[in-house]
Every structure is written in C-alpha cells, then in structure tokens.
Amino acid sequence: MRSFESREDYLETIYVLYNEKGYVRSIDIAARMNYSKPSVSRAMGLLKTSGHIEMDKDGHITLTETGLKLASQVYERHRVITSFLTSIGVDPFVAAQDACRMEHAISGESFEKLKEHVAAMELNRSEELQ
Q1: How many CB atoms lie within 10 A of CB 58?
Q2: Is 28 exposed, middle or buried (0-12, 13-18, 19+ CB in 10 A)?
Q3: For a Cys-Cys bond, which of 7, 11, 41, 47 suits 53, CB 3.0-4.6 Å?
Q4: What domains appear along the chain, each with residue ranges and CATH number?
Q5: Separation between Cα atoms, residue 72 and residue 67, nearest integer Å
Q6: Residue of 3, 11, 2, 1 whose CA lies nearest to 73
C-alpha cells in the first residue's frame, strides 16, 4: 500500500462489503475496487500486520477493533461529504468520487462543522416535508 489513503480506502471497502454481504474475501475487494488480486493480497498482508484486519483459514476478512474504528470514520466522512455535494447540485456519481478524495484530506474541525451543517440541512428538509 502506498499511503494512508490507500489503507483507508481498503478498510472502507471491507466495511461496506461486510455490511452488504455479511462476509468479505480478497476477491470481493478486488472486484469492488477494480484492483488486481495480487495487489489486494499484498494490501491484506500489510493490514493484517498492522493489526487492522484478521483473516481466517477460509480467507474471510474481518476488521479488528482498530480497523473497524478507522473504517467507520472514513465511511462517515464519505457519506457526509457526498451528501453535502449532492445537496448543492453535484451529480451523485461525481460527488461520490470527489468524496473519496476529500475524505482523506479534511481536518477533524472542518469535518465536524460540515457534519453539523449537513445535519441541519437534513432537519430543515424533513421539516419542510411535514
């Protein structure tokens, strides 16, 4: 893995796949991320060594407590940024792609303020619908 961004992308993908399917294998990650199986295998080895994942004898991958915490944080940033961008008129596909890049660079302070803003927008929107 080249960077913390790559690590976060892998962890987020594992998190999303597990929530969708109830299990994750390297081949699932490779298909979702459009990466080669050897690249994913190398990344899984690094994530295992760093204590972010565990892999059983059947090749099923699970997030450790540390991995789950980081993955859920990255996924939350992704969801909030995507929601914000789509709310201001960005195409959903473009918003999701941009969120993938922005989720790694945004500061904690900026993210918290953005999250508060998105929550307020969603609350206003639901109140308008009532």
Answers
A1: 7
A2: buried
A3: 47
A4: 4-68 (1.10.10.10), 74-129 (1.10.60.10)
A5: 8
A6: 11
Cα angle 36-40-44, degrees, rounded to a multiple of 5:
170
Q: Convert 33-45 to b/e letters by CB count within 10 Å (16 or more is b).
A: bebeeeebeebbe
> How many angstroms separate the CA atoms of 48 and 66, rounded?
11
pLDDT tens for the chain, 130 residues long, are 457 789 999 999 999 999 999 999 999 999 999 999 999 999 999 999 999 999 999 999 999 999 999 999 999 999 999 999 999 999 999 999 999 999 999 999 999 999 999 999 888 877 777 7
Tell me the chain's radius of gyration from C-alpha atoms: 16
